[in-house]
Amino acid sequence: MAFSDTDLIYMRRVLDLARKGRGRVSPNPMVGCVIVRGNQVLGEGWHEGPGLPHAEVNAVKACPDENIQGATVYVNLEPCAQTPLPGLP
Fold it and tell me: Which CATH architecture has domain 5-75?
């Protein structure tokens, strides 16, 4: 699978967001998330610490209406299957 220049831009942003958790999220990994529809960023988030919402949840909650259907979710770790995301059926 090839990545576009746009994909790389968003993934760099994901990594920047993930770094915000440095020194605060152990034993969990540093995770960032960007949600995009078209060329518009709908929401961003990162994991802020143990016991706190995951990056994906924070990014969805940052979206204006929490509806991410039809959007692309960029995240540096596979989304957690144990945490239901708001805005998804």
Answer: 3-Layer(aba) Sandwich (3.40)
